[in-house]
Each structure stands twice: as structure tokens, then as C-alpha cells.
Design brief:
This protein is mainly alpha-helical and 182 residues long. It has a domain at 21-147: Glutaredoxin. Helices cover 58% and strands 4% of the residues. The protein contains eight helices and two strands. Strands 1-2 form a two-stranded antiparallel sheet.
């Protein structure tokens, strides 16, 4: 997305929450977990290195990301759009457990948010409920779009681009969207 924004200055990126393993999901079988750990993750890590030059050192698999999504909504409400990228990096590159409030507070402080206010907003029931409702709206929208994984990019509420794709693919979709808008 950064590469697309660097070449296409008028592109607005809006991040939406999406839960891979929402609360109440059935447990992952040991066989499937072993397949993920021994096949899928190494293949994904290799692809990210070869295709995007990114070294993946991900955090724990199967954590509940809901608190992180709530934290991101709080950060956005404060006009801070750096938290999302910092939390993403913390999980995928720095192997941090972003389901932990202390880790999220550290990330929030690193991007200029007040740690105490941040922690209060994501842990106290009244304020947490507000941001949790925003996450739920995003999750409902993802279901309406038929999304079943991340990343998933939706252009102009019409074009779905699933998976990590080269910037050239995103530029082609953007060209199509602009052509139809004329």
C-alpha cells in the first residue's frame, strides 16, 4: 500500500478491522496447527522475502486480535494513523504478542499516544464498548463483502483484491476504477 500511495498521491487508504479467529471460534486441531507451522508459515515467509523483501518474524499464532483492533480504533479517534502500521510491524516483524495490553501500550507510546489514556480507553468497559462496536461494524462489512482472509483490498466499494499482490496489480485495478469513473 505504501508503494501505491507513493506513486498515486490521490489514493486514500482506510483500514478496516478483520478478525481471523474471533472469540468463540472452534479450536484448531493439532494436525491443522502442525500444517500451518510446518508448511504454510514457512512458505508465506519465503514468499514475503522473495516477492517483497520483507523478513517475517511473526508473533504467536492464533492469538485473539480483538483488543488490537479496538486499540487501532482508539488511535484513529485520536487522529493517530501510525498505530496500525506500528502494531502490524510489532506482530509480523518483531514477533510481539499484540494481544497483550502492555505490548499495545508500548506501541501506542512509540507513536506518540498517551499511554495511560490509551490503556484506559481500551480496557475500561464504557470506553472499550465504543471502539468494540466500530470493530463489529467493520467485521460485518467484511462478511457482506464475502471476505475470508487478509489482506484484502476493496477499491471503490466494488473491486476485491485478495492477498498480498505486487503494486503493479494494484495500479491496474486503480486504472480500471478511474476509467469507469470517467
Amino acid at each position: 500500500m505504501k508503494a501505491l500511495q507513493e506513486t498515486e498521491k490521490d489514493v486514500e487508504v482506510v483500514w478496516h478491522a478483520y478478525e481471523l479467529r474471533p472469540a468463540g471460534s472452534p479450536p484448531i486441531s493439532p494436525e491443522y496447527l502442525a500444517k500451518i507451522e510446518n508448511e504454510s508459515r514457512p512458505r508465506f515467509n519465503q514468499m514475503m522475502l522473495e516477492d517483497h523483501g520483507v523478513v517475517i518474524n511473526s508473533g504467536p499464532f492464533g492469538i485473539n486480535s480483538r483488543i488490537t483492533l479496538i486499540a487501532d480504533k482508539y488511535a484513529e479517534s485520536q487522529g493517530n494513523f501510525d498505530f496500525h502500521e506500528a502494531a502490524t510491524r510489532a506482530y509480523w516483524v518483531e514477533a510481539k504478542d499484540i494481544s497483550q495490553v502492555s505490548v499495545l501500550r508500548e506501541i501506542a507510546q512509540s507513536v506518540g499516544l498517551d499511554g495511560e489514556a490509551f490503556e484506559k480507553a481500551i480496557t475500561e468497559p464504557a470506553s472499550r464498548a465504543l471502539y468494540d462496536a466500530e470493530v463489529s461494524r467493520d467485521v460485518r462489512q467484511a462478511r457482506e463483502f464475502g471476505l475470508q482472509g487478509v489482506p484484502a483490498l476493496v477499491f471503490n466499494q466494488r473491486y476485491l483484491v485478495p492477498g498480498a499482490v505486487p503494486v503493479e496489480t494494484l495500479q491496474q485495478v486503480l486504472k480500471q476504477v478511474r476509467a469507469e469513473a470517467k
